[in-house]
Design goal:
- The protein is α+β, with helices and mostly antiparallel strands and 128 residues long.
- It has 4 helices and 4 strands, in the order H-E-H-E-E-H-H-E.
- A 4-stranded antiparallel beta sheet has the order 2-3-1-4.
- The longest helix is centred in the middle third of the chain and has 21 residues, at 33-53.
């Protein structure tokens, strides 16, 4: 089982979630050197219209800079919002996504992917 592709149990749990609202996927990305970063950039360019067609959008994409806590380093992080968990599952099962996924697999050395939802009752004051 690849550390790049979600396993079937994880995908089934995602699909079985009672949460029907929007989901933000947290991606931690470690590239396979500069060639891997180039492959992932091709994937990123190709996946953007697929995301848009499904009502999803990239909220943030950035280079992982200074590691302040922890020991595992990453090259980049991405936050991608989908209208629902099902929208994500539909996208990754689509033929157009499957056609470009090879660049993602070739680009990444390892990754972490979390499906996240807002915490109820926890608010962080902006500009305090």
């Amino acid at each position: 089982m690849s550390a790049i592709v979600p396993n079937l149990d994880a995908l089934q749990a995602l699909g079985a979630s009672a949460d029907g609202g929007p989901v933000v996927m947290l991606n931690l990305l470690k590239f396979q050197g500069s060639e891997g970063a180039a492959a992932y950039a091709r994937y990123g360019a190709a996946v953007n219209p697929i995301l848009t067609a499904r009502g999803a959008r990239i909220l943030y994409l950035g280079r992982a800079a200074e590691l302040l806590i922890g020991t595992e380093t990453w090259d980049a992080i991405a936050l991608v919002q989908y209208p629902s968990r099902q929208a994500f599952l539909d996208m990754i099962a689509s033929p157009e996504y499957q056609a470009i996924h090879v660049d993602r697999e070739q680009g990444l050395d390892r990754t972490v992917l979390y499906a996240t939802t807002p915490l109820q009752g926890l608010q962080i004051e902006k500009g305090a």
